């Protein structure tokens, strides 16, 4: 019968295993720890309101009028599809160009989609803050759709509202996720609604939203959530952003298996109006910027407002085109 090895020979082996387990645990903690902490903290920082009078430009405050632009800026990557293809310097330069472009529109309010607040692929630049400062918007709301980080990377981006008028409050608008596990892991597309103080004691609410691109049923659920929000508000609501949906009868429109369409649900609610209502022309198309074939970026206004002006702005600073509108509110 063989004898057991001496205890003094087993001790170094146990020590090596213990050290290996500790080393592996430290590596896992360093890699996964920041991610876990970021996901725990994410609900408390989904919406933030900022003011910066140093970079403000006075609003062109015409009584009863509001000028608004919505723009999906595609993380500053331009008209290409790959967020990693260009250098950080190129993206920063493009964000400066986007700020100059928006400044020339003389808009009082700008809604941004796919705007980075701290993302590795855009050089950790807060694009909303840069655009607001360069284009002269003293007030802004940042709302994070995705919010997570690892040891050497972070992805924090979503929607933003830039305003030359004071922002009185802002709340997240929760939209149904594409998948619950996806929401738990990284987050999902939501919206943010902010109350703006216009001249003459008038107030308006602006909802910045980016609906899911993967399935029309997701957009239908999102549209129903928008209707629910609008029905609860006493203050007029403007909805702006990349809705990823096109009304039936328009080019490249989609419906669910049950024949539902997100834009049709918004229309049938009677709470919104938009342009164009029918027979869109090539100049009305918003996506893509280089080969525009459909309208998915919208400005929806309440029934007590009218369009004084409406225009899709051509350009290749993003894969989307910006939409500009001037509204007049009833007394």
Question: Would you mind describing this structure in some detail?
Answer:
- By secondary structure, the protein is α+β, with helices and mostly antiparallel strands.
- The chain folds into two domains: 1-45; 46-329, Deoxyribonuclease I, Chain A (4-Layer Sandwich).
- Helix content is 28%, strand content 28%.
- The chain has a seven-stranded mixed β-sheet with strand order 1-4-5-3-2-12-11. A five-stranded mixed β-sheet has the order 6-7-8-9-10, with helices on one face.
- α2 packs across α3 (127-135) and α5 packs parallel to α6.
- The radius of gyration is 24 Å and the shape is globular.
- The N and C termini lie far apart (102 Å).
- The model has no long low-confidence stretch (mean pLDDT 90).
- What order do the strands of the largest sheet run in, or round the barrel if closed? 1-4-5-3-2-12-11
Task: Give the count of structural domains.
Answer: 2
Q: Which series of helices and strands comes N to C?
A: HEEHEHEEEHEEHEHEEE
Assembly category:
single chain
Mean pLDDT across residues: 90
| Poorly predicted ranges | none
- How much beta, percentage-wise? 25-35%
Main sheet: strands, sense, barrel: 7 strands, mixed
What's the CATH architecture name of the largest domain?
A: 4-Layer Sandwich
The coarse silhouette is: globular
| N-to-C CA distance | 102 Å
How many DSSP H or I helices? 6
How helix-rich are the residues, as a percent range?
25-40%
In total, how many beta strands? 12
Radius of gyration, in Å, reads 24 Å
CATH superfamily of the largest domain: Endonuclease/exonuclease/phosphatase
CATH class of the largest domain: Alpha Beta
């Amino acid at each position: 019968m063989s004898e057991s090895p001496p205890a003094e020979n087993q001790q170094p082996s146990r020590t090596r295993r213990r050290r290996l387990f500790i080393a592996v645990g430290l590596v896992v903690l360093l890699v996964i720890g920041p991610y876990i902490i970021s996901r725990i903290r994410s609900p408390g920082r989904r919406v933030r309101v900022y003011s910066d009078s140093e970079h403000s430009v006075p609003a062109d405050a015409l009584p009863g009028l509001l000028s608004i632009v919505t723009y999906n800026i595609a993380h500053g990557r331009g008209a290409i599809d790959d967020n990693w293809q260009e250098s950080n310097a190129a993206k920063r330069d493009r964000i400066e160009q986007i700020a100059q472009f928006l400044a020339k529109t003389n808009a009082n309010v700008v809604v941004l989609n796919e705007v980075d607040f701290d993302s590795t692929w855009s050089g950790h630049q807060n694009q909303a803050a840069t655009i607001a400062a360069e284009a002269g918007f003293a007030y802004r709301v940042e709302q994070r759709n995705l919010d997570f980080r690892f040891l050497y990377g972070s992805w924090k981006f979503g929607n933003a509202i830039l305003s030359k008028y004071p922002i009185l409050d802002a709340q997240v608008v929760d939209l149904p996720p594409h998948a619950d596990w996806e929401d738990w892991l990284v987050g999902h597309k939501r919206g943010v609604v902010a109350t703006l103080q216009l001249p003459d004691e008038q107030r308006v609410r602006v909802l910045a939203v980016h609906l899911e691109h993967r399935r029309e049923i997701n957009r239908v659920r999102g549209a129903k959530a928008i209707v629910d929000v609008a029905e609860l508000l006493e203050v007029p609501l403007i909805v702006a952003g990349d809705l990823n949906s096109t009304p039936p009868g328009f080019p490249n429109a989609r419906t669910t298996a049950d024949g539902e369409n997100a834009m049709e649900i918004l229309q049938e609610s009677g709470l919104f109006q938009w342009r164009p209502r029918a027979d869109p022309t090539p100049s009305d198309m918003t996506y893509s910027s280089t080969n525009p074939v459909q309208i998915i970026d919208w400005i929806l206004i309440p029934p007590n407002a009218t369009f004084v002006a409406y225009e899709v702005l051509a350009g290749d600073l993003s894969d989307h085109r910006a939409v500009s509108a001037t509204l007049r509110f009833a007394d």
